[in-house]
Amino acid sequence: MSERPPISPRSPRAALEPEQVPPPPKRSERARNPFVVVGNAIFTILIILMIGAGAVYYYGRQILETPGPLKEDKIVNIPSRAGKRDIADALLREGVINVNPWIFIGGVFALKASSDLKPGEYSFQRKASLRDVIATIVEGKVVQHAVTIPEGLTSEQIVTRLLDNDIFAGSVREIPREGTLLPETYKFPRGTTREQVIQRMQQTQKRVLTEIWERRNPDVPVRSLDQLITLASIIEKETGRADERSRVAAVFTNRLRQRIKLQSDPTIIYGLVGGKGTLGRPIKRSEITQPSPYNTYVIDGLPPGPIANPGRASLEAAANPARTRDLFFVADGTGGHAFTETYDQHQKNVAKLRALEKQIQNDTVEPSEDAPPPAAAGAPPDTNPTATTPRPAAPAKKPPARPAAPATAPARQGAATTAPPVVER
């Protein structure tokens, strides 16, 4: 009987393990190929890059789309010649963005807007995201400032207003010719030069004037565009009420047809001070008959040029006046004027105005015992009158106890402090 080797006791785990471990399989020749090794490395790198790019894209999109810090709309000025870093610093300083300036620059490059950033004044909306901020600057939709030029100003007065407005840049080479600017409300971006503003006003005036001239009443006694502007400028200075312009125009056109002097006080003032526009005091009696190319109390017909820059409504009124026979008008005490065809009726209206002014003066001013009674509003002392119609000794008719408006119409820009009557001398 053969002998068996002694049995050595083993643990259950050891019993499961093989007594001899098989050798590892040999690596194939293909796996050891250097091209395969390089290809695996490149593939691994591409996967890592794709994962990184995806992470960057997701993170960048989150930054671009996240609402910004603005709690309300805000206007920020991007100066000219500002670089990307300067723009980022300005936006960060104004609280439009709250990210690092380099992230803003990265967003500009990501949106391919590095060459499209435009200077100007921009309005950024509340909680505007970084994408919205960049898009606003790229679109170049700068803030438009409304600038209103009132009717009836002289060219010198308009230039002064432009020089005093800090949204404009540059200087004015020379004052434009009187009557070539159209008073209106315009919109300009900050930084517009004053010469550009004047050019736009002149171009608008030419366009509007051409349109009005084409549809004018052929019976109007003006023969050129310059005469139309001159007549409209006188109408502009005589009344500020829209419902009166055509009737005031009718008075002056009727006088031109009948070769009666226009006798408009604003023409006296322009002959005295020119483009300054305002006299600063009532017209003196001696100045009414003082020779001047613009004084329509002395000259026949229209003055040699406009006395202001009339608005669109006055140009329309000059081209299409009301069909009336009125030759006179005077303030009626309610802010408007009373129009008449005859001088006698005009004198009665003047007496009513003086009586109304005196009544209001007595109701509002208590006379002093030591001082002489004050003159009625609109009726200065004889040494400094503003009207050519003699002041009546007593009221022709008792005025109403409570007038609906002040006794005299509001003073027009450049006109006398009261509205004197237009009378035939």
Automatic annotation (TrEMBL):
Signal peptide, first to last residue: none
Residue ranges the record marks as coiled coil: none
Record's subcellular location: Cell inner membrane
Function as written in the Swiss-Prot or TrEMBL entry: Functions as a peptidoglycan terminase that cleaves nascent peptidoglycan strands endolytically to terminate their elongation.
Top EC class of this enzyme: lyase
Reaction it catalyzes: a peptidoglycan chain = a peptidoglycan chain with N-acetyl-1,6-anhydromuramyl-[peptide] at the reducing end + a peptidoglycan chain with N-acetylglucosamine at the non-reducing end
Region of interest (Disordered), ranges: 1-30, 362-425
GO molecular function terms noted in the UniProt entry: lytic endotransglycosylase activity
Pfam families, per database record: YceG
Biased composition range(s): Low complexity: 376-396, 404-425
Alphabetically ordered keywords of this record: Cell inner membrane, Cell membrane, Cell wall biogenesis/degradation, Lyase, Membrane, Transmembrane, Transmembrane helix
Organism listed in the record: Bradyrhizobium icense
Family listed: Belongs to the transglycosylase MltG family.
Keyword Kinase: no
GO BP terms, alphabetized: cell wall organization; peptidoglycan biosynthetic process
Membrane association type: Single-pass membrane protein
Protein name: Endolytic murein transglycosylase
